[in-house]
C-alpha cells in the first residue's frame, strides 16, 4: 500500500481520516473494487466559515491522502468541482488545481462534469451572460488529461466514460450534456439550470452496456436521472436513461424515443440479448443529501456534498442542517469509499465526515 506522506493535510483531518481508514480497511474485500468517491466540492477562492470556499480543494487533497491509506483502485469525483460563482480566470485556476491533484498520482481517476463546472453561476449575474465557459474549457482542462492516463477510462465524444475492473464495468455519465451555441452574444442554455443527456450520449451509454458482456455494471453521474418520487431527475431524457437501464436488466432489444426537440430529440437502438450482467446501482451527487431508493428494480444511491454547508446558511439542505456542519471539524467535509464485492454481490458505501458510516445493498 502506498502512503502519500508528501501530501499535506490538516491535523484534525489526518486524525479523523486515519481512524476512518483503520475502521474501513478490514472490511474491504481483497477481491472487490474499491473507489474513493467525493462529489460537489464547490471550490472557490472566496472564503466563508459557513458555506463553500477554498476548502473544496482541501477536501480533494484529503481524499488523495485517504486513497493512499487504503487499497483503493480508483479515485472518483462526481462533479461540481468548482462553484462557478467567480470571474472565469479564478474559476479556471481552481479547476486546474483540482485536476493537478488527481494527475499527481499513478492511481487512475475519473471526473464527471457537474452543472456548476462551466461557471454559469457567475454568468447569471451578467446581462450578457459573460464569464460562462465554452465546453472546450472542461474538455481540455479535465477530460483530455483524464483520457491520457495510462490504464485510464475510455471517454466518449459526449463526455461519458467507463472502465472495467474484473467482472465489473463502471460507467460515468455526463448529465450536463448540453449543446452550446451563442445567440446574439448570449449562451443558448444556462448549464447550471439544464441537466440533460442528448440522444448521442444515450446511444454511447447503450454501446457501453452492450459491450459489457458478462460484467455487472455500476452507473455513476453527477445528477441522478430519477428522483425518489419516480419523476425524471434531468430536464431532458432522464426517464429515457432509466428505461435503458431497465431494458439492460431485462435483456431486451428495441428502440428508445426522445421526441422532436432540436437538441435533445431523436432515437437510439439497443440490443442487450447477448449480455449477462445486471445494473448494480446508479450512484450520484448533486442534491446535497443522502438517499437510497429503488424504481422499477433500479437502485439509486445519492451521496452528500463534500462542500461545507453550515446550518444557518439559507441554501443549506435539511440533511446538512441536521449535521450542523462546522469548519475545521470532520463535519466540514463528506466523502466515501464505494466498494463493489462481486463474490458476495454487495455494494457498500462507507462514509466519513457528514455522511452515513455504512450503507450496503445486495444486487
TrEMBL record:
Residues 35-289 form the Calcineurin-like phosphoesterase domain. The keyword Transmembrane does not apply. Gene3D superfamilies: 3.60.21.10. Keywords: Hydrolase. Its EC number is 3.1.-.-. The keyword Hydrolase applies. SUPFAM superfamilies: Metallo-dependent phosphatases. GO terms for molecular function: hydrolase activity. InterPro entries: Calcineurin-like_PHP, Metallo-depent_PP-like. It holds the Pfam family Metallophos. This is Metallophosphoesterase family protein. The lineage of its organism: Bacteria, Bacillati, Bacillota, Bacilli, Lactobacillales.
Amino acid at each position: 500500500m502506498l502512503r502519500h506522506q508528501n501530501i499535506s493535510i490538516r491535523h484534525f483531518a489526518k486524525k479523523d481520516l486515519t481512524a476512518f481508514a483503520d475502521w474501513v480497511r478490514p472490511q474491504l474485500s481483497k477481491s472487490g473494487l474499491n473507489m474513493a468517491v467525493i462529489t460537489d466540492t464547490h471550490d472557490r477562492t472566496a472564503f466563508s466559515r459557513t458555506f463553500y470556499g477554498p476548502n473544496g480543494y482541501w477536501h480533494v487533497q484529503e481524499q488523495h491522502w485517504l486513497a493512499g491509506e487504503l487499497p483503493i483502485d480508483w479515485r472518483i469525483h462526481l462533479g461540481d468541482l468548482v462553484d462557478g460563482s467567480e470571474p472565469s480566470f479564478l474559476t479556471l485556476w481552481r479547476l486546474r488545481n483540482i485536476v493537478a491533484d488527481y494527475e499527481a498520482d499513478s492511481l487512475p481517476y475519473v471526473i464527471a462534469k457537474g452543472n456548476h463546472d462551466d461557471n454559469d453561476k457567475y454568468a447569471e449575474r451578467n446581462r450578457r451572460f459573460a464569464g460562462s465557459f465554452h465546453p472546450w474549457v472542461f474538455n481540455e482542462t479535465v477530460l483530455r488529461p483524464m483520457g491520457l492516463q495510462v490504464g485510464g477510462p475510455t471517454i466518449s465524444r459526449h463526455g461519458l466514460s467507463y472502465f472495467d475492473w474484473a467482472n465489473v464495468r463502471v460507467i460515468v455519465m455526463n448529465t450536463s450534456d448540453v449543446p452550446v451555441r451563442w445567440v446574439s452574444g448570449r449562451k443558448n442554455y444556462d448549464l447550471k439550470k439544464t441537466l440533460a443527456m442528448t440522444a448521442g450520449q444515450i446511444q454511447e451509454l447503450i454501446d457501453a452496456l452492450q459491450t459489457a458482456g458478462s460484467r455487472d455494471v455500476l452507473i455513476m453521474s453527477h445528477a441522478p436521472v430519477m428522483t425518489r418520487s419516480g419523476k425524471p431527475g434531468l430536464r431532458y431524457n432522464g426517464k429515457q436513461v432509466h428505461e435503458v437501464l431497465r431494458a439492460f436488466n431485462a435483456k431486451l432489444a428495441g428502440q428508445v424515443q426522445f421526441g422532436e426537440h432540436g437538441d435533445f430529440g431523436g432515437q437510439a437502438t439497443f440490443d442487450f440479448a447477448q449480455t449477462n450482467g445486471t445494473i448494480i446501482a446508479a450512484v450520484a451527487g448533486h442534491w446535497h443529501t443522502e438517499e437510497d431508493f429503488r424504481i422499477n428494480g433500479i437502485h439509486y444511491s445519492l451521496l452528500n456534498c463534500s462542500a461545507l454547508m453550515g446550518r444557518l446558511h439559507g441554501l443549506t439542505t435539511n440533511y446538512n442542517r441536521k449535521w450542523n456542519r462546522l469548519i475545521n471539524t470532520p463535519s466540514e467535509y463528506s466523502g466515501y469509499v464505494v466498494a463493489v464485492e462481486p463474490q458476495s454481490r454487495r455494494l457498500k458505501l462507507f462514509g466519513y465526515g457528514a455522511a452515513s458510516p455504512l450503507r450496503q445493498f445486495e444486487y
